[in-house]
């Protein structure tokens, strides 16, 4: 019996990376300098940081939603191969990179260069959604074993449909960023909320594994 | 059989976020500059950092106590649904944000703007206690399955009573911050100690799962 | 059956904190500035960072050794109570704080204030060894259940003996820091090596839980 | 029964360290300053960061590949001893250190000192590959129990062959760094890709532990 099997270790490692990336976002929000506060006061200085809060919130929501879906993908995996490690690694490469475009956006949204920053930021999410797509395609076509219950295969088809909007929508936000930075960022934030609220394509979300588990 | 079930993965991810947030606090305590030390000496420069130590300690204690209670909440969960992911995500959003108001307080407690910093800091904790409350309400009303042992339901009622002081007390610290910064921070610190010492509403805290587990 | 019991969750959280604290140490080693390099060259500038390397190495070794022993303590635990959470929390408070005195030492070992930095640094380790001691005493007297195999109790006595040198030796390094900074740091580093090499007081360290576990 | 055995805890701790080290890399990529952007524009300023992207990518790929192989080594372990903790600790020491030479390379690749930076960077990887080698030699000669299935021993011999190129190839990149920085870094990146693509010396990579595991 495999107590801690291979895919569980990939999941744990990935969870670690997602958790660190999501928590590192905050260290890029810089506390206003004493010289700035001497001029305009701390209250106004904190209000001026709104691009940082917005970028923090958008990146946080996006990483969280990708984590939730990453997690659903790995529930489907019941075999693994060499490519799984590296397709997952490619996704993690982009996830760990998120703090950089996030800070870029925070720093330049109100300055010359805001367009470049928004293009970089939304382009990052296109890259993530494409690598997520590649991971799911690999899992759904190769890593659900042939003798899996047919129900599972139907689910896989359902999930593929469910994800078909991801890359085009993020590509849309990317295209919009060339025209309007605020609209592009709003789209990225709404996309995270959309995938959060849209949920999972199956009705039975309730689950009851350990009824006997109770407060010791 | 589910070796690593869904709620365990939410717990692990949350644990990761709590652990990182609690450990990141320290990197915001800045080592005194050589120019400051040349003037007043390292000893006095280190003493002058007391707002940083105080903010570090208060935030550390608060995150630790919230982690312990988060952990007790998840012991109660024996079903999960879509909302659990996102109510938990909302709590984590505020937890990961803690290092920012902590640094703000460290930097401005002794300067103009200290009131704003204390309001922001205690307001943060109100947000956390409210999102914690929302998480618990959802768990206690929806995620303890109907056929759970009735004992568990009684416990849930007990816990709800136990938590009823959380949001009002943090709201109190928030209100006080408009009048006195030191008092407000003291209240935040005492609240963490209060919830730490008050403990859990049940007598039988001793637990003995693996008597056979021993040093190999 | 408890798949992921309470003490395991404390262990996981603690492991996370240890892992993050040990990995954060490196971000305090600052890459030499271009202006410094223009004057003395990169090679010499990197050599000048030796206090950073020394502090990094000493703190890394110390955190690693404390992690290994923390881990052995939790193998002994077969009950848990409320205090375990908070005695462990106190230990983690000091562990997460380590990067601060480490950077302090790196920055001031070659400057005025080196004595204060070394006192702070070694004092930190006294605090850690005392809180570690408190944790172990609590575990050994309260959390090894009465009906535990007597062998385990003997082991506990053995371990108590094994640890009796910890706090006095770190206290020694602390006292020495008032006289000689280099000697005090050397003692801290040697203490980590000493506890690493001295190992565990039991002969049978080999262990064979999953012979059937193999490369898939 | 040991639910979470000792080697699993070493693996978890190591996974945490790898995950944090790989995620910390990004915080060393500095967002261009407003003064630089005022002169050359954000687009050109971002292009000028190419040494940072290259160093980030090379270090990310290397840490990921070492993590995958670390993970395969621990699948082989079915005993553990005291040295395992500290040989693994030595490897982690070098892994946690990676962000420092990575930033050094980013900062100095286009400046005086690039040779020193590249020597340091590739020298780091030599140290990692040697400590990895030491870990594997210890595991393969001591920690595969005598009564292990003979198949496993054959695998161990196969793996030893598989790894025999690691240290000499990294040593090659190190030697080359004295002559050409770009070539040396290209070798480091290619080595990561080489070990990623070369994969594992066994055919049967597909694995099917939990066919019954499905979306709840």
Question: What features would you describe in this structure?
Answer:
4 copies of one chain form a homotetramer. The first copy, chain A, is 73% helix and 0% strand. Chain A has 216 residues and is mainly alpha-helical. Chain A has one domain (6-198). In chain A, helix 1 packs parallel to helix 5 and helix 4 packs antiparallel against helix 6 (99-108). Residues 201-216 of chain A have low confidence and may be disordered. Chains A and B meet through helix 1, helix 2, helix 3 and helix 4 of A and helix 1, helix 3, helix 4, helix 5 and helix 6 of B.
What's the short version?
The structure is a homotetramer of 216-residue chains. Chain A has ten helices and no strands.
Please state the oligomeric state of the protein chains shown: homotetramer
- N-to-C terminal Cα separation of chain A, in Å? 28 Å
Rough shape of chain A? elongated
Number of domains of chain A: 1
Largest interface, with counts of residues having CB < 8 Å to the other chain, equals: C-D, 49 and 57 residues
Strand content of chain A: under 5%
N-to-C series of helices and strands of chain A: HHHHHHHHHH
**What structural class is derived from the secondary structure elements of chain A?**
mainly alpha
Report the average pLDDT across residues of chain A: 81
Radius of gyration of chain A: 20 Å
Helix content of chain A: over 70%
The tally of strands of chain A reads: 0
Determine the number of helices of chain A (DSSP H or I, runs of at least 4 residues).
Answer: 10
Stretches of chain A where pLDDT falls below 50 for ≥5 residues? 201-216
Largest sheet of chain A: none
């Amino acid at each position: 019996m495999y107590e801690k099997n291979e895919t569980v270790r990939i999941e744990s490692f990935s969870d670690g990376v997602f958790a660190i990336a999501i928590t590192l976002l905050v260290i890029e929000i810089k506390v206003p300098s004493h010289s700035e506060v001497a001029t305009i006061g701390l209250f106004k200085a904190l209000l001026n940081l709104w691009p940082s809060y917005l970028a923090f919130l958008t990146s946080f929501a996006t990483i969280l939603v990708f984590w939730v879906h990453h997690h659903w993908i790995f529930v489907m995996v019941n075999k693994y191969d060499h490519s799984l490690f590296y397709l997952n690694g490619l996704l993690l490469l982009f996830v760990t990179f998120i703090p950089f475009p996030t800070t870029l956006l925070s720093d330049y949204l109100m300055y010359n260069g805001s367009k470049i920053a928004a293009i970089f930021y939304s382009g990052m999410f296109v890259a993530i959604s494409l690598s997520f797509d590649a991971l799911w395609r690999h899992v759904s076509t190769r890593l659900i074993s042939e003798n899996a219950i047919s129900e599972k295969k139907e689910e896989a088809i359902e999930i593929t449909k469910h994800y078909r909007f991801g890359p085009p929508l993020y590509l849309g936000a990317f295209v919009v960023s060339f025209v309007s930075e605020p609209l592009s960022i709003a789209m990225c934030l709404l996309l995270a909320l959309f995938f959060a609220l849209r949920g999972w394509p199956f009705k039975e979300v309730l689950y009851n594994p350990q009824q006997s588990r109770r407060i010791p």
